[in-house]
Amino acid sequence: MTGDGSNVGRHTQQRNQRPLDEFHGLSPEQMHRLLNFPFTSPELIRFPEVLDTKPTAPIVALLGMLLEAIGEKGLKPTAKGNLPRKFCRDAALAYWGEEVYRENTRFGGINREEDFGDVHITRVTAELAGLIRKYKGRFILSRNCRALLTANGLAALYPYLFKAYVEQFNWSYRDGYPDLRFIQTAFVFTLYLLVRYGGTWRPHAFYEDCFLRAFPRLLDELPQHTIFTPEEEVRRCYTWRTLSSAWQLPIVVAP
Q: What is the pLDDT of residues 106-164, one digit of tens each?
């Protein structure tokens, strides 16, 4: 019995370490690590503590505006604790440019933080990352944020934003799709796919196919919709959250 048990255990271990086509070269054991321990699996993936170059992701531009507005004196929030209207309007104009700003505000201006969704997400993520906080009725920069800025500028802040965005910020917030939390849990697999196949342009359907082939049970989380099938809903949600809306961080994948 002991021998049989050892053989079964050895067979299971070998199976878990064997690369699978549906995982695009990853083994079940590696996939388990990526899904459950993405930031503590350096043998598979390494996230730089400081980027080699200044990041150009949209969230960085907005964060830079926010940090500048906070400055040394802080920034007074609204009664609801949000960013002041004037800052949101000025940030939107600088971020979009005059023509896009006019188009985006054609049917309604920016009267509150939530009216400019990108800056709202930036502020929330920066707080989750511990880069800004409220103190004595004002937004201020945290001590850690100041130290990071002094040492390496925005290149040192983006990894904190990224980690907070994938671990703490709820991707389903305000997007209208079902919760489907697993799409966020599997963010490293999407990054893996982009590193492996992103050298050549491919349509979003390619990445949707890869994701659904790897995790077909995700379809079971959705009831039959009167308009869209579960597969259509997952595909739309996946593309929006991972390829359209998510801010990505340059990564190094270990061989």
A: 999 999 999 999 999 999 999 999 999 999 999 999 999 999 999 999 999 999 999 99
CA dist 197 and 100 (Å) reads 32
Contact 246/240 with Cβ under 8 angstroms? no
**Backbone dihedral angles phi then psi of residue 131, each to the nearest 5 degrees:** -90, -30
pLDDT 10s digits, 11-44: 577 778 899 999 999 999 999 999 999 999 999 9
Sign of the C-alpha dihedral, residues 208, 210, 214, 216?
positive
Rg (CA), the chain: 21
Q: Give percent helix, percent strand, percent coil of the chain, each to the nearest 5.
A: 55, 5, 40
Q: Rounded distance, CA 74 to CA 156, Å?
A: 21
Report pTM: 0.88
Which three-class secondary structure string do you get for 158-189? HHHHHHHHHHCCCCCCCCCCCCCHHHHHCHHH
The dihedrals phi and psi of 104, each to the nearest 5 degrees, come to: -75, -20
